[in-house]
Design brief:
The complex is a heterodimer.
Chain A: H1 5-30, H2 33-49, H3 58-76, H4 103-111, H5 114-124, H6 130-136, H7 141-161, H8 163-166
Chain B: H1 3-12, H2 26-35, H3 49-71, H4 80-93, E1 99-110, E2 116-126, E3 133-138, E4 144-150, E5 153-158, E6 163-166, E7 179-182, E8 188-194, E9 212-218, H5 219-227, E10 230-236, E11 245-251, H6 271-281, E12 285-292, E13 295-301, E14 307-312, E15 318-325, E16 328-341, H7 344-347, H8 352-355, E17 360-362, H9 365-375
């Protein structure tokens, strides 16, 4: 049986009211502020069009969509770097104040691979539980736990490396071991 | 540094100020979205997240049914027998202070794509400061890497060179968020915190001993900072031009501990505590017996069905921990899980130098970094 559009609209509105701040925060951490609003709108537009696929625990699903939207923007951007995640060194509006960041942590995060960084920041910044973060990344919770553990280990090492790491080329920072 | 401390540092580096409003015209955005047509039917998608989550739900439901079937408790409550087992299991992993935990475990991770990763970790971990630790990691290829932590410094042993490489300790002030001194008036204090410089496109830099930003705080604020009910944060200053941020003492609500997780991270130093959390707060119940490696075990499962923990039916010591997901899982088999008294002989198990008395100790940070790259080529 098809639900009436009003019921769909109510559900989307409820989803939007409950989660738009979290989705916006996720986007603002990873994209310039002017693009972040578009990311939010695009994310909920996908949710609107695929409402029957949105699970009861909707936030991980929404963040996974937002992640894809950001990636799509990034790939399609003619202005290379305009949507780069701020930790990759972009001079975007989303670059945090230097005064508010722990330089050592941010620098170390910046030297991690994207997937390591995402595993850590989904937990630390977006406040997700490991199972939720796993859903965002399309992984099993078990796989995510191992990835998170390894990401933390790599982050520690990068923090230890400190200044010396700044002088090294970035090529070695790609994941060294799967998964 | 513990996992929790590491993650706290990352949280502190969150680029968003928690107090910042999300500047989004929610009503307008929502109206725009609702004006868009909905697709009549979703296209089939390959292993969508929704499907994955649906599977999780289905598995959890099946587990719940299984729990009721085994325990015969149709109210879903914990049976007395189950409660007693949980109590014993908690006791078995509760480590007295000033002891050393020795764990030898084999891990298998099913990636869900037909591949698996196996490893072995044997570690000795002191449970009080300075939390020294020694660890032997055996990878898929059989290569053994020995590393440790001594007085907070990371170490790695290179057997080919007969050398223990030691990381340098961070500058004493590196982790300081702020310094407190007497204020200009009675009942006030001066709070100073480093000013960090940035070059676009390059990592942030702070020089120990560099410039500081200063604010005056009250005795009450200092007390709250020390109690952890308030924290120091940089607050955005709208329209403040180049100096967009200013120091402020704000309630710690945004930094409040989050709900405890029922997921167990085997690599964390707080692994025993996580097991206790799983047993105490995650609806764990005894669901049956199983024989693992010839040992009779009691099978304990979390309410969500994602984690199954097997303990020896006599000693309640950990035997196996299985975590399942929708496309794989991880199995940790405990070959040893024992608490050792902090005798001189046992403390030697924490020390790379004690284990390799003829090894040279190299404290050059650059050599340590190079050794780490050699010994952990895959991270």
């Amino acid at each position: 049986m098809t639900e009436p559009r009003d019921a769909h609209a109510e559900r989307l509105e409820e989803l939007f009211r409950r989660h738009h701040s979290a989705v916006a925060a996720y986007a603002r951490r990873r994209a310039p502020s002017d693009a972040a609003d578009d990311v939010v709108a695009s994310t909920f537009l996908v949710a609107w069009r695929r409402l029957d696929q949105v699970p009861a625990d909707a936030l991980p699903w929404l963040l996974a969509v937002a992640r894809n939207v950001i990636a799509t923007h990034h790939r399609g951007s003619q202005r290379r770097g305009a949507l780069r995640v701020r930790l990759e060194g972009s001079e975007s509006a989303a670059v945090p104040s230097p005064e508010e960041a722990d330089d050592r942590v941010v620098a170390a995060l910046g030297r991690l691979s994207e997937r390591d960084r995402e595993a850590i920041t989904l937990i630390a910044w977006d406040g997700l539980q490991p199972a939720e973060a796993a859903a965002v990344l399309g992984q099993s919770a078990a796989t995510f736990r191992v990835r998170l553990h390894r990401a933390k280990r790599r982050l520690r090492r990068e923090m230890d490396r400190g200044e010396a790491a700044d002088r090294r080329p970035n090529t070695h920072l790609s994941p060294r071991r799967s998964p | 540094m513990t996992d929790d401390q590491l993650m706290d540092l990352v949280r502190d580096a969150d680029p968003l100020d928690d107090a910042d409003p999300i500047e989004l015209d929610a009503d307008a955005v929502l109206a725009q979205i609702l004006a868009e047509p909905q697709e009549p039917a979703a296209r089939p998608r390959r292993r969508s997240i929704a499907l994955r989550l649906g599977v999780v739900g289905a598995v959890a439901a099946l587990v719940a049914v299984a729990v009721f079937a085994v325990t015969g408790d149709d109210r879903g409550g914990v049976t007395p027998a189950s409660a007693a087992v949980i109590r014993h299991a908690i006791s078995a992993v509760t480590q007295p202070e000033h002891t050393i935990l020795h764990v030898d475990m084999r891990g298998t991770q099913d990636n869900g794509d037909g591949t698996t990763v196996t490893w072995r970790d044997e570690s000795w971990q002191e449970n009080t400061a300075p939390y020294d630790r020694r660890q032997l990691e055996t990878g898929d290829d059989g290569r053994i890497t020995e590393s440790g932590t001594l007085d907070g410094n990371s170490q790695v042993y290179d057997p080919a060179r007969g050398t223990i490489y030691t990381s340098s300790p961070p500058p004493a002030d590196m982790h300081r968020k702020y310094w407190i001194s007497k204020g200009p008036r009675p009942g006030t204090f001066t709070l100073r915190t480093p000013v960090i410089k940035v070059t676009p496109g390059k990592p942030f830099k702070v020089m120990p001993g560099g410039p500081k930003e200063t604010i005056i705080i009250t005795a009450e604020q200092l007390k709250a900072l020390r109690a952890g009910t308030e924290v120091v944060k940089w607050k955005r200053q709208p329209g403040a031009g180049k100096k967009r941020f200013a120091l402020a003492v704000v309630p710690a609500a945004a930094n409040a501990p989050r709900a405890p997780s029922c997921d167990v991270d085997p690599g964390s130093g707080g692994f025993p505590d996580q097991i206790v959390m799983l047993l105490r707060n995650c609806g764990a119940q005894v669901v049956g017996h199983a024989t693992i490696a010839g040992r009779d075990t009691l099978e304990i499962r979390s309410r969500d069905g994602h984690t199954t923990y097997y303990v020896d039916s006599t000693t309640y010591a950990p035997v196996e921990l299985d975590a399942t997901g929708t496309d794989g899982g991880t199995r940790l088999r405990f070959e040893a899980y024992e608490v050792l008294p902090a005798t001189q002989a046992n403390e030697a198990l924490l020390s790379l130098a004690a284990q390799h008395p003829s090894a040279i100790v190299d404290r050059d940070p650059a050599h340590y970094q190079a050794a780490e790259m050699r010994m952990f080529p895959h991270g």
